[in-house]
Design goal:
The complex is a heterodimer of chains A (329) and B (435). Chain A has 13 helices and 8 strands. Chain A is of the alpha/beta class and 329 residues long. Chain A folds into 2 domains: 124 residues, Rossmann fold; 166 residues, Rossmann fold (3-Layer(aba) Sandwich). In chain A, α8 links the parallel β5 and β6. In chain A, α3 packs parallel to α4 and α6 runs antiparallel to α9. By secondary structure, chain B is of the alpha/beta class. Chain B has a domain of 143 residues: Rossmann fold. In chain B, the strands form 2 sheets. In chain B, strands 2-1-3-4 form a 4-stranded parallel β-sheet, sandwiched between helices. In chain B, α1 crosses α11. At the A-B interface, α4, α5 and α12 of A face α6, α9 and α19 of B.
Chain lengths: 329, 435
């Protein structure tokens, strides 16, 4: 059985505890697909658009099933649109079956009971299997190396994606990734990339060229959400992820302020997609953190999820201007 | 012409004005109040007699005062980009602007608590930001989505809601409602009166059955007896106060006056030729749009969601626990109104019931809960034989509304329909192949 998952910050620790390995298909780009596009409004999230195009085009028929995570931005719409394509007969007979997981990033007693029932539903649907090792610890280690400047942004991005897109790597079937030695620490201004998830490494590579990318908000989200070594721990880790967008307490910006201080960030680099309806609500608060903590703020504005060269050129120009002006910590 | 407005229409507006005045007085006197989203369990707050200001209502008040452009421009200056929600966020922007003299009523004091259901990705963010600004208690309800879509919900959910929703989602919502009750008791120092709550819930069902009858009267009348712009306050003002003595009496009065108007063969448009449905929230800053096609084309807007949804979305029969019944009411509101096939199947049925000839869909690009699924909905309506016009516009952002262009677009289609009479009129016969 080959399983795919769609959603940023998926509960991979929970899945591993249930014996489920799955390939993350959230970031893959897709070509236009007329049959899918006729039903996609202009404002649809680019990652949602992409997975639906690939589904209708038959490119996901290699999977037996896809799990969509409701708590991930846009994922519930991806699931329901996928169901609509299925209802209209637009999916091939080999298309994967579709599953919506409603696991909540919250940890009260009612939520715990609900999450337990969601685990049972998922395990029943996919079949029970012995627990596996999850990727939480390795993901945490990669973030730590990046925070210390021991690997650059592009390298961290690639190691992370390799883990998420090939779950055999969780299981120790491949050599563990290694950080660079202390002598090759990245140099330059310490940058923190905040805002919406990106679909590829091109902006990370650009930031590496302008400084040292020590913090990636979305990588933190992924790592927290994937934590835990058994089911209880994993549910607890998922519930206490301070970067979960649907957290019911307003603690995300406080966590960000602490993490930026811990990583000694010199500059925040902020970006969202033009169709964003979520992350942009944080922007003024992030600016406030920047002002209060003496951290520079570089607003790249709208950036496509798979940036084209002209987007990167514009970003490079903004970065160069801001970094040249500098900001004392 | 249908003559003057119904007397109950003015009565509804008078009641709302008086209620608004008393609410304002209570808030000025320092009463603790809740600022809540429209799809939250108002029933609990009403039963506990705690004042409420509804986010979307306050947003429409700001828009009606022609202040939306000002606040949306200020939002951009504050650093919020222009793709973010408008309808659900206008009051937050006004609060962040923090100039009460600009706002309706001279502004609102900070609420004691904020309540939203996380039915959209951004609702939680908006309310968290508000809570951080004001220090108000934040009560966010989870919104797990149905894992499978259902057909015929408007019948099935009235009585078989336990089977349709499933235990887990109901248990979670019920538990969250009970948590809200506890927090309200702590906030006010008063015990929650469950008998009063039960009576309120029973009255709401009674009220919604009356609205169901009104909806059927209007749907079956030979010609439209009341414009949707007059329907809406007669439905929504009682809905904001649902289950109260006023609301129940008003529903009865509305029913009586509509019946009389139909008996007297009064119609909005003497030469009614084309019946249209308006799909989406109200076009609050240009409500004349709804009546602008009557004289030239004999085209009337006969349907908006507010009246029929009062019955289909709210009637939930009691099975021994009113709190669980309330959970069943709230659990799938968003799916029913916006998510195909729930929404599209219901809209096709409504179009048949109301003998609709043309559907007009409002597609708000920045208010995603109302925008999602509109192309699927349009497709299902077209498959049912109904022409569909899609209008890109926001409910409160008048800056980008080109009323002249929208009118011309609709007029062009109406002209074509008049030249090809009766081709598209739905008959009320069911067509199971569509759904």
């Amino acid at each position: 059985m080959r399983t795919a998952i769609f959603g940023h910050g998926a509960p991979l620790g929970v899945m591993a505890a249930l014996g489920i390995t799955a390939e993350d298909i959230s970031l893959a780009a897709a070509d236009p697909c007329a049959e899918a596009d006729q039903f996609l409004e202009e404002f649809i999230d680019p990652f949602v658009r992409s997975v639906l195009r690939r589904l209708v085009a038959g490119q996901l028929d290699i999977y037996d099933q896809i799990i969509f995570f409701r708590d991930s931005p846009g994922a519930v719409h991806a699931f329901h649109y996928a169901c609509e394509y299925e209802r209209r007969g637009l999916l091939s007979c080999d298309a994967p079956t579709l599953f919506l997981s409603n696991l909540l990033s919250a940890g009260g007693q009612p939520e715990l009971a609900f999450n337990q029932s969601e685990c049972d539903r998922l395990a029943h649907w996919i079949g029970r299997a012995p627990p596996l090792a999850g990727p939480g610890q390795i993901l945490g280690r990669i973030n730590s190396w990046q925070n210390q400047g021991r690997i650059n942004g592009k390298t961290a991005w690639h190691i992370r994606r390799a883990l998420l897109e090939n779950p055999a790597r969780w299981q120790g079937l491949f050599p563990e990734p290694q950080a660079d030695t202390g002598t090759s620490r990245q140099a330059g201004k310490r940058l923190a990339l905040l805002g919406e998830p990106l679909g590829n490494d091109s902006l990370h590579e650009l930031l590496d060229q302008h400084g040292c990318l020590v913090f990636d908000q979305q990588a933190e989200n992924i790592s927290y959400a994937a934590g835990g070594d058994d089911l209880n721990q994993a549910l607890s880790a998922y519930a206490s992820n301070p970067y979960a967008p649907r957290l019911t307490e307003p603690i995300q910006t406080g966590q960000l302020a602490d993490d930026l201080a811990r990583c000694q960030a010199d500059f925040i680099v902020w970006q969202t997609d033009a169709r964003d309806d979520l992350w942009g609500w944080l922007a003024p608060q992030i600016r406030h953190i920047s002002d209060n903590r003496g951290i520079g703020f570089i607003d790249l504005g709208f950036m496509p999820r798979w940036p084209a060269q002209e987007d990167l050129d514009r970003a490079a120009s903004l970065l160069a201007n801001h970094l040249a002006q500098g900001r004392k910590r | 012409m249908p003559g003057p407005q119904l007397t109950c229409s003015q009565a509804a507006l008078d009641y709302q004005r008086s209620w608004t005045k008393s609410l304002r007085a209570r808030l000025t006197d320092g009463a603790a109040y809740g600022f809540v989203n429209a799809d939250t369990p108002h029933e609990i707050f009403h039963a506990h007699d705690i004042p409420l200001v509804v986010n979307q209502w306050w947003s429409s008040v700001i828009a009606a005062k022609q202040l939306s452009g000002y606040y949306l421009n200020r939002a951009a200056e504050m650093g919020f980009h222009d793709s973010l929600a408008k309808y659900s966020a206008l009051p937050l922007i006004a609060r962040l602007e923090n100039d009460p003299s600009m706002q309706p009523w001279g502004g609102l004091p900070d609420p004691a608590f904020l309540c939203a259901r996380q039915s959209a990705d951004d609702h939680g963010q908006i309310f968290k930001l508000w809570a951080e600004q004001t220090g108000a208690d934040l009560w966010l309800l989870h919104a797990p989505s149905p894992p499978r879509n259902q057909t015929g919900w408007w019948d099935n959910l009235r009585d078989r809601w336990e089977d349709c929703h499933g235990f887990a989602r109901l248990d979670l919502m019920q538990a969250q409602l009970e948590q809200m009750v506890s927090r309200l008791e702590q906030l006010t120092g008063r015990p929650f009166d469950r008998d009063r709550f039960g009576k309120l819930m029973a009255s709401i069902n009674e009220q919604e059955y009356i609205f169901q009858d009104v909806s059927r009267l209007i749907a079956n009348a030979p010609r439209l007896p009341i414009r949707i712009s007059e329907q809406i306050p007669n439905v929504m003002i009682p809905q904001w106060h649902r289950g109260s003595e006023f609301a129940l009496n008003h529903a009865r009065r509305f029913h009586a006056e509509i019946s009389r108007r139909i008996e007297q063969n009064q119609a909005v448009c003497e030469q009614e030729q084309i019946r249209m449905m308006w799909i989406g929230a109200g076009l609050w800053f240009d409500t004349d749009f709804y009546s602008d096609f009557e004289t030239e084309f004999g085209a009337v807007f006969a349907w908006s969601m507010y009246l029929p949804f009062a019955a289909d979305g709210y009637i939930r029969h009691y099975h021994g626990d009113w709190m669980r019944t309330l959970a069943a009411r709230i659990l799938s509101m968003n799916e029913q109104l916006h998510q195909p096939p729930w929404a599209s199947e219901w809209l096709v049925k409504q179009a048949r019931d109301y003998r609709i000839d043309l559907a007009v869909i409002l597609v708000p690009e920045n208010d995603r809960p109302s925008g999602y699924g509109t192309r699927f909905i349009a497709s299902d309506l077209r498959a049912a034989g109904l022409p569909v016009i899609e209008l890109q516009a926001d409910m409160v952002d008048s800056r980008r509304w080109d009323g002249k262009k929208a009118r011309a677009k609709l007029a062009k289609t109406l002209r074509q329909m008049i030249n090809q009479p009766q081709q598209n009129r739905l008959t009320g016969q069911s067509d199971s192949s569509l759904i």
